[in-house]
Write a structure and sequence with these properties.
This protein is mainly β and 1212 residues long. The chain folds into six domains: 139 residues, Jelly Rolls, CATH 2.60.120.260; 148 residues, Jelly Rolls (Sandwich); 112 residues, Jelly Rolls; 157 residues, Sandwich (Jelly Rolls), CATH 2.60.120; 164 residues, Sandwich (Jelly Rolls), CATH 2.60.120.200; 203 residues, Jelly Rolls, CATH 2.60.120.200. Helices cover 7% and strands 37% of the residues. The strands form 16 sheets. Strands 35, 36, 37, 38, 40, 43, 45 and 46 form an eight-stranded antiparallel β-sheet that branches. Strands 47, 49, 54, 55, 56, 58, 59 and 60 form an eight-stranded antiparallel β-sheet that branches. Strands 1, 2, 3, 4, 5, 6 and 7 form a seven-stranded antiparallel β-sheet that branches. The chain is extended.
Length: 1212
Amino acid sequence: TGECVDPLVSGLYASSFLASSRYNFLYSANFAKLYGSSGWSPSPRDRQPWLQVDLGRKYRLLAIATQGTFNSYDWVTKYTLLYGDRPDSWTPYIMKGGNSVSVTDLEMNVFHYAFTAKHIRLLPLAWNTENGGKIGVRLELFGCSYVVYMYPGKSSRTLQDHIAINFKTLEQDGLLLHSEGIQGDLFTLELRRGRLYLHISLGSSVVHKVDGRITLTTGSLLDNLHWHYVTIKRYGRQVNFTVDSQTVTGICNGEFTHLDLNTQLYVGGVIEQNLPHLPTTPNFRGCLENVFINGINIIDKAQREESDIRIPQKVWHSVDNIIVSYDHHQRHRMFVKFKFRSWDYTGLLMFTRFADDLGALELGLSEGQINVTIFQPGKKKLQFGAGGLNDGYWHTVDLAARDNLLTLTIDEEEGSPLKITNPFTIRTGDRYFFGGEYSTQRAFQSTYMRFVYRCTPNPCEHEGRCIQSWDDFICLCENTGYKGEVCHMSVYKESCEAYRLSGKYWSGNYTIDPDLSGPLKPFEVYCKMKSYKAWTVIMHDRAVGTKVTGSSIDRPYIGDVNYWNASWDEVTALANTSMYCEQWIDYSCYKSRLLNTPNGRPFGYWIGRNNVSYYYWGGTFREVQKCGCSINQTCIDPKFQCNCDADYRQWYSDKGYLDFRDHLPVRRVVVGDTNRTGSEAQFTVGPLRCHGDRNIWNTISFTKPTYITFPTFRPGSSADISFHFKTYRDHCVFLENSDDHLRNFIRIELNTTHNLVLIFMVGDGILNATLNSPVPLNDNEWHFVQAEINVKLARIKVDYQPWAVRRFPGQTFVTMKFTHPLLVGAANRTLRPFLGCLRGLRMNGVPLDLQGKVNEEQGIRRNCTGQCLNATIPCRNSGQCIEGYASYTCDCNNTAFDGFYCHKDIGAYFEIGSWLRYNIRKKPVSDEAAWANWIDPHYDNFSLGYNDTADDIEFSFSTVYTPAVLLYISSFVQDYIAVILQTDGSVDLMYKLGFITHNYQLTHRNLADGYPHYINITRHNRTIKTQVHPIVEKIILVEDERFDSPKSMFLGRVMEVGDIDYDIQKHNSPGFIGCISGVRYNIYTPLKALFRPNETDPPVTTQGYVSESNCGAFPPVLGYVPWEVDPWFTGIGECMWSIMHYFKGGHYFMFVHLFVYLCLHILYVYVYQQKGSYSTNEPKNLESPGSSRPLTETLRREKKNLPEIEEEFRKG
């Protein structure tokens, strides 16, 4: 007949298509043919769209192909398929894999098992929404009709057979097919306990005493009222037996190859009971269809009542109605019997109303047990319960009732029926409702609907117990050490170090799980907590000395070390994940040698990880056959490397710590020299002690767009991923794994500054779980990410924020079968690269060695070392380095400087009489705030300007005029700070805190010499440190330590309102004349606020002529500026560099280029020095690269030449 791949939809008429709605006439259901010029689309208001196809008659269906609407963005990415023989009875088809289609590509889905149907209904569940897309479907079904052959002759002798049958039933046992032959041939197909059994014999040999009968079995739980498709193919002795795509094969016994049967073939049972090979199985009760025996359609012959078919009794079709009418009502007795099975804890089984308004009777499930409730007017409700019956198995219920007596028998256990003897009256009604009608209870769900075993196989991991309801399952994870939807995530931390980092600072017994969600079980250890580390201690049975005698090198004593509470694999996992491990080992000897000589065969040794023998002892280095005394040169005999190798008749010992982690823990100790007269030995092994977690701090930095690869991630049906990151980028991919065609993939990415996304396609279309963080995640701080996918949900979280959860519908299949390597740091083809630091990456509990992939040339560095720690030119003048990993910038906002590296002085030249005032606060501090700050010094910080116990002042100046007040800070009270240039050029510091004015001389040298001088004053409480050039001094205040409520800062001249100290007044006139730069008081920078304002109305007031100047600062020689942040980068230099590689002698060209550059630089410096410190015609419009936002345009100032300084007069 050929292959069963005929197209079945393309030849149908328009009347064969039906839909719930249509978008318009051009998108009607009849346009839903494959490769058609349009397609079907439902109305946008249709909440439950469907497309239905009537094939005209039953076909065997093998595959479906789908497309989107022609020439549009309309296609379906996920759908459900229903099939049936009638348009009012549907069965869903369940198959693993996604059903995604595009507008042009043809998506073919081959069914896992073939089925027969006349009607097909497609339910769209998800569709393309990009570019205005909507639901759009074109489809084709592939299958074939049955070819009927006339059976030749009245008997059957065949070399090959092809038998097919469809059936569904509620019964666990039933005879489907049976036929025998007079020569002992046999063919029987029967259902026993929900499984199918095929018995076949081609005949037995009497001579050789060979039984030709074989039995094949397959399938399970076939009594679920689903249609099941069975095929049996035989050629000679070879038999293939298939049920719903599950095939078993067998070879018939004996030497015969033909099946010889008589004229009787029994379908569904037998008529005669005297057949010699008749099984004891009862006749089949259920539905049969499409029964084909070598091409003969048995059902078709039975329906036409042909002469060669005998039907002894009426065969009924299946009825699924749940309302039963009963003509003989108003009786005093009631008898009801039925079978059911369910997973639900609660639901209605049966309900009936009594006649004459005498009440009602209800039979239902409550918490898994049968409940009988009798309602009668004027009487208290009677309610009784028995049994735990929501286990998914078939149960029989017999109910017999009469006045004042009700008996309920479950599963025909006559010895323990439930009896109700309370007073009540029975008058049977005429209707009985099964499954949920006439009740407020939840409708009962049972085999009348699709019955699915969700706990077989067990989806719960780590020995979790699975229980199910009708449409879901729950994993009970108690006492497993795991949690989550499928008991996948560990309850415990991976190490004592992880407990310490989570805030557990007290020593004691803790349960750890080194591989987290991996297969190893959690175990208990002792954690010895320190402030800086946590020691993990595991005890064993060799901590007490073990005495050894009578062992030789050929028959040594082998002492196994059995660790408490943990298996060998679990202890090894702990050592493997720790930063450092050590284990004490002690060998005491009396005329018993240990290692003998460095080159000889050792008498004793220890066995560690991977069952490898190690011939070095405690206290020495690995891979050297020595003991600790040879390293310390304390062995009792210098000719030997161990004390015990001297072989003295005295007790000696060799002991020390084994501390090479990759060899630990100690698994066995071997002793082989105690068989001589008087020889004896004793060994002791200390507990395994480890600290640190090298996975937590396994850190790398991505400084260039690249990625690293690991072996393909093979998670199975559950996956969890965790890692720490920090970055400045607002969009990047952390990791990705996929298959060849991106039909299965998983990816974690930062989509925006606040959105962390888990994107995946694992059998159900492209889905995602998105976490919206209330704080930005690209703040260059460490963030901890956790993600999980299982059959019930996908979820992701960061730090301590709640999980973002994407739940899956029931019946979800998760297929995470990836083929490409795991990519970390970018998506495929280096798309959306990650720049930043990554550490502690785990996939399903398995740590990945990130540092093993370090490659400096590709931009992958060990540890979190970006450009800030490797900067060619660091940020100057306390500028904060902002990490860019591929580059860096300097934040100069809290400094008094400017420029790319915060290296440019911001200064001002003050003419005679000019001054600057910077307002720190506009109004004094309230008494309440001052009192609160007095009680709690941390009530607020100095940014509010009051009750400060710390000052940090720095500036530089140059002048030739004295006296002057260089800097003055006033307050709303009598406190002030002043730096005064005396008449002789010396500098004094005046502090008034409280009632006493403190006057200190910072330097006695004459600083009014026209050169720049740097001054720094730092106070903490009563301690003041001063620096004038390289000289540092310390001053102690004797009274108050608080500078109360600062008000204003003055440069050039003090113009404060109110009383001013006399010492300030006598130095205040005519004012400061010269240049002052780099002025900063705590976080306040008045000159920067004037010339680089970050706000439209800076709190700065000037009087007279105050002009910006660099105060003669020598321009620093700076290095290379990264091209990523160079605003003048054009790429020409990179081109020139590439061109040089193509010219012979390119190094000569480079040398000439460098020489010319140096000459021009020297000439520039010379001209600049000759120009003088203040001969500059600035003003200019400036913007600060270090500002957090674009700066406003500098106020335009009058264009006039600055006055000549003293050096220029001398030159004249």
